[in-house]
């Protein structure tokens, strides 16, 4: 992960992500730095693959992690800081259980409405107060399972993250040799962050991206226009009414014609439309990229970026207690890994299902090799400024509050 001239700890400090990891009244947390080192390696490998099959793209690891927070700052007019056991976005919390810690996300109205059923408290009350009281009585896994049964994202923090690959592959069609990304059409059925980031990276490498949205339920990321524009610059847009026969036929035709199908919903969503993986013929070379919280083998479990990171064991630690790592970090890590998986699949001829789990992605980064040199010191210069020093390199890096400014989004075609 590191070389004589590169240090993951200094890179983590400069990324903007370290600044939002930790408690508000404590220092920014250094412990996730090995994960940042692994991300730079994934980005470097994506650059190497895209150079062979398209236009070389070298993603900036800091930009990958911190762009949404930077966009939120721009929209809200204020910088978000460390929130410890509350997520940067405010929808997720780490709750102490009788045997450890559990993350719960209440980002939707239906999540909050489900809390009394999860806790067995028919009297109602503040959802977080009910969950905190229940978690204090139950094991973390029990609370997470009860929440998941009702469709609420929740995860127990593992005591030791399991090692593994972010994705699994399965043959679905014959391969086709000799294609580049410039020959590929990506039909992007995803929303929010992980899938669109994957599509953005593939588009920068030469693929044609067609983003498909439901006329009844457009991408919720549109609520933050700067972030949405960043992810979808240069993409084509199609709005489809999934409730009509004509709309389903239109979507089916796009799926069948795609070189890469990118979807990030639970399998039943497309299955209910008759457009799932097993419902369609697959042309030679087609790649079907599925991004889910826990993989297609666990189709009923739901996850968002913060709780998926906890499920994989990717958290920071301060004085023995876990804190959320950056902003919904499983999302950008999954998007980056998905782009690498898709590009590598095209280079190999395609004809594959790529089953990427956000939980497994987080676990892969949580088990990244430890920093190969040390020690690294975190110290405060003034009340608002922190630094990290790498004694091995003799270098000091300020903990930056946000990444470098981003390129402006180019114009794009609107929905039709």
TrEMBL record:
Compositional bias ranges of the Basic and acidic residues kind: 64-79
Keywords: Transferase
Region spans: Disordered: 64-91
Keyword Transferase: yes
One Gene Ontology MF term: transferase activity
Pfam family, one: CoA_transf_3
UniProt entry tagged with the keyword Repressor: no
Highest taxon of the lineage: Bacteria
Protein name stated in the entry: CoA transferase family III
Organism: Nocardia mexicana
Lineage, opening ranks: Bacteria, Bacillati, Actinomycetota, Actinomycetes, Mycobacteriales
């Amino acid at each position: 992960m590191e070389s004589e001239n590169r240090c993951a700890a200094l890179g983590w400090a400069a990324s903007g992500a370290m600044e939002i990891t930790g408690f508000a009244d404590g220092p920014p947390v250094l412990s996730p730095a090995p994960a940042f080192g692994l991300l730079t390696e994934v980005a470097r490998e994506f650059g190497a693959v895209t150079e062979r099959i398209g236009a070389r793209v070298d993603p900036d690891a800091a930009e990958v992690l911190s762009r949404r927070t930077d966009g939120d700052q721009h929209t809200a007019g204020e910088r978000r800081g460390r929130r410890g056991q509350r997520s940067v976005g405010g929808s997720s919390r780490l709750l102490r259980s009788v045997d450890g810690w559990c993350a719960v996300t209440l980002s939707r109205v239906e999540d909050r409405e489900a809390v009394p059923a999860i806790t067995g408290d028919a009297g109602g009350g503040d959802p977080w107060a009910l969950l905190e009281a229940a978690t204090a009585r139950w094991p973390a896994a029990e609370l997470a399972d009860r929440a998941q049964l009702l469709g609420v994202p929740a995860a127990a923090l593992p005591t030791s993250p399991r090692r593994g690959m972010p994705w699994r592959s399965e043959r679905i069609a014959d391969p086709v040799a000799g294609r580049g990304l410039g020959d590929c059409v990506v039909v992007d059925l995803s929303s929010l962050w992980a899938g669109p980031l994957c599509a953005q990276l593939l588009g920068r490498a030469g693929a044609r991206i067609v983003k498909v949205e439901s006329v009844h339920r457009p991408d919720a990321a549109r609520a933050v226009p700067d972030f949405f524009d960043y992810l979808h610059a240069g993409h084509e847009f199609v709005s489809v009414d999934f409730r009509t026969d004509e709309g389903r036929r239109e979507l089916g035709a796009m799926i069948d014609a795609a070189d890469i199908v990118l979807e990030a919903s639970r399998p039943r969503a497309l299955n209910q439309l008759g457009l799932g993986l097993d419902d369609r013929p697959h042309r030679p070379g087609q790649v079907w990229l599925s991004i889910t919280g826990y993989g297609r083998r666990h189709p009923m479990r739901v996850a968002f970026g913060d709780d998926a990171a906890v499920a994989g064991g990717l958290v920071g630690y301060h004085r023995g207690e876990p804190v959320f790592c950056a902003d919904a970090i499983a999302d950008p890590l999954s998007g980056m890994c998905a782009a690498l998986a898709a590009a590598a699949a095209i280079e190999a001829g395609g004809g594959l299902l790529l089953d990427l789990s956000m939980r497994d992605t987080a676990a892969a980064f949580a088990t990244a090799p430890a920093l190969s040199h040390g020690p690294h010191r975190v110290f405060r210069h003034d009340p608002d400024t922190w630094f990290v020093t790498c004694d091995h390199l003799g270098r000091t890096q300020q903990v930056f509050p946000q990444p470098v400014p981003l390129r402006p989004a180019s114009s794009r075609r609107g929905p039709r």
